Amino acid sequence: MADRICVAQIGAAHGVRGEVRLWSFTGDPMAVASYGPLESEDGRQRFTIEALRPAKDHFVARLAGVGDRTAAEKLTNTKLYVSRDRLPPVEDDDTFYHADLIGLAAVTPEGITLGTVTAVHNFGAGDVIEIKPDSGDTLLIAFTETAVPKIDMAARQMTVVPPVEVE
């Protein structure tokens, strides 16, 4: 299980005063501002959200120390992480941090191994699980109850119903 969790990503600069577009990956999207300083993926930069307001499909954030558009532009696509111990505990058996799913074995309901979960993506229409088989092309499976009916964290595996191939 990961020690740090990616909770947001900075997008493009917004305006000329150093604000940035921000995508939150938390259950409560506004909660991203309450976790304290956030770190870049390499841990070299720390960011404090001073202000956060909703926009059409993202947030607009003012980060401490980012005072102009040039500084904001340098942060484009920076992923923001927080130490796992600063996040609320998972209390529901059907709730997971995406980081906890990475590395799980993906198996069919019949027990056939499909591969290993390598990523969880969200391209705007819901979460998608990326599965890397031992050989062949990567599989992308919608992360729904129908396609992923069971996750067993103790066994470190998820049951995946692969899509039916149409001829």
Short description:
The chain is mostly beta strands.
Name the average pLDDT. Answer: 89
**Shape estimate:** elongated
CATH hierarchy, class of the largest domain: Mainly Beta
N→C terminal distance: 40 Å
How much helicity do the residues have? Answer: under 10%
Structure in words:
The chain has 167 residues and is mainly beta. The chain has 2 domains: 4-86, Elongation Factor Tu (Ef-tu), domain 3 (Beta Barrel); 98-159, PRC-barrel domain (SH3 type barrels, Roll), CATH 2.30.30.240. It has 2 helices and 13 strands; from the N terminus they run ββββββαβαββββββ. The chain has helices spanning 69-73, 98-101; strands at 4-14, 19-24, 38-39, 46-47, 49-54, 59-63, 79-83, 105-107, 113-122, 127-132, 139-142, 150-152, 157-159. A 6-stranded mixed sheet has the order 11-10-9-8-13-12. The longest helix is centred in the middle third of the chain and has 5 residues, at 69-73. The radius of gyration is 18 Å and the shape is elongated. The protein starts with a strand and ends in an 8-residue tail after the last strand. The model has no long low-confidence stretch (mean pLDDT 89).
